[in-house]
Specification:
- This protein is α+β, with helices and mostly antiparallel strands and about 180 residues long.
- It has one domain (about 5-165): 3-Layer(aba) Sandwich (Aminopeptidase).
- The chain contains 4 helices and 7 strands.
- It has helices spanning about 35-45, 60-65, 115-125, 145-150; strands at about 5-10, 25-30, 70-80, 80-90, 95-105, 135-140, 155-165.
- A 7-stranded mixed β-sheet has the order 2-3-4-5-6-1-7, sandwiched between helices.
- A hairpin with a 4-residue loop joins strand 4 (about 80-90) and strand 5.
- Helix 1 crosses helix 2 (about 60-65).
- The longest helix is centred in the last third of the chain and has 14 residues, at about 115-125.
Length: about 180
């Protein structure tokens, strides 16, 4: 089995954000009308390359319960009318906001979208009333630039774990170009 290292990162102040401001034509919209089928599509579109498997066996009722919860918000990025990627923010206990899912569709990796999308995810998290901390985790199964992208945006590692588990999977893909 392969060793998988998981990195837990956080940001404790919005002033720590080192935003990438060049959108490269990317447009990002919040999904204000929740549709669990759309989140399921995005999860599969982005997550297939990163072996996101934890929710593949979910029933429609499980998807509906997850997506339609008031503690979850979803944004989708588009380029020339096509979905490029997405992020989901989940309100946690103590007014922490987790970047629960984040990533780009395979066709759009390497086009300079990751840093801007992550910047917007962090801004969205901080704009959620009462947020005191934004956090995420990524692992060595994710894109090779994932950890660097989080750190380049101003997030800092606060915990690291290593496991011997070939089926280990973390939610946030962390795909990102610097």
């Amino acid at each position: 089995m392969n060793e998988v290292t998981t990195y837990y990162l956080e940001m404790k102040s919005p002033s720590s954000l080192k935003a990438k401001e060049d959108a490269n034509g990317l447009r990002i919209y919040e999904c204000e009308i929740k549709q669990y089928q759309f989140n399921k599509f995005l999860y599969q579109l982005v997550g297939e390359s990163w072996k996101w498997i934890d929710k593949l066996k979910w029933t429609d009722d499980q998807w509906r319960s997850f997506v339609e919860n008031d503690n979850l918000r979803t944004w989708v990025a588009y380029y020339k009318g096509s979905p490029v990627g997405y992020y989901e923010l989940q309100r946690q206990k103590g007014d922490d906001v987790e970047i629960a899912y984040f990533g780009l569709a395979p066709k759009f990796i390497g086009h300079g979208f990751g840093g801007y999308l992550l910047s917007q995810a962090i801004k969205s998290a901080w704009s959620w009333d009462g947020t005191t901390r934004v956090w995420v985790h990524t692992c060595t199964l994710d894109h090779s630039n994932a950890l660097r992208n989080y750190e380049a945006r101003g997030m800092t590692v606060y915990h690291t774990t290593t496991a011997n588990n070939a089926l280990h999977r973390t939610p946030a893909s962390g795909v990102g170009e610097l």
